[in-house]
Amino acid sequence: MPHFLIAQSELPAEREARRRRAGKSSGETYAATLEQIQPGVATTIVSPADDAAPALSTDRLAQFDAVFLTGSPMHVYDDGPAVRHQLDFMRRVFAAGIPSFGSCAGLQIAVAAAGGRIRKMPKRMEAGIARRIFPTEAGRNHPLLAGRPPGWDAPAIHGDEVAELPPGATLLASNAMTHVQAAEVRFDRGIFWGVQYHPELALREIAVAIAAQADDLIEAGLADHEDDVEAWANDLKALHDTPDDPALRWRLGVDGEFAEERLRRREIINFLSNLEALRG
């Protein structure tokens, strides 16, 4: 049975706040998702951004079958100890030659570690649903996006984005809001597949995140009142419980690619299916 390393970039206070809201830290969510996809899989969670976190050597990292990088509130363009710790960790993952996958901040960390650039989104945040994601020409035949239709929606909540991919990276998907929605990064001895959206999250977790950021959504002009945010979050929670409800799908403007858990997790499933090839 494979053994996966999950690296969460949330700091201790952020992890506890997420546990209070959603019941799990971002790393614990990833572990639960991987266990549901591959029952019995072994997972180890680390927090490389923490001041007291031990630095794992490349030899130790190479003992894992893959590394997963979670989302978090981390602003990768802020030059502070937490960001430097996280980027150093990711460079060791690349040096170890171990396949890695990440979502949201996980994508941004891998891109920055390989020499790319991250920025605050210039217009507004992308919140709740990333709409009309389309594969690039390279993405149409890339195994990360195998099975995706010509366009799809995905759970997302982020105010930062990739501004520039590093050398050796391939853009795989975009939409009107965020140019880099999916990418492959090759750096040093490693290969990373990542997405800006959240295939690992349950819809209830997205709903909780939306409700917790109501003030930010109103400030960004995405909602007029807290009641609007609450009603939208409640629809997401209801879709979590009844994903085949046609009225909820219509009201939220989504199809099965977003509503159905198996389809929503497609990129993670594809990554796991290709691990042997990625390890060379």
From TrEMBL:
Transmembrane stretches, start-end: 93-115
Alphabetical UniProt keywords: Glutamine amidotransferase, Membrane, Transferase, Transmembrane, Transmembrane helix
GO molecular function: transferase activity
GO cellular component assignments: cytosol
InterPro entries on file: ChyE-like, Class_I_gatase-like, GATASE
Domain Glutamine amidotransferase: 43-205
Pfam families named among the record's database cross-references: GATase
Tagged with keyword Repressor: no
Database matches in PANTHER family: GLUTAMINE AMIDOTRANSFERASE YLR126C-RELATED (PTHR42695)
Name recorded for this polypeptide: Type 1 glutamine amidotransferase
Organism field: Sphingomonas zeae
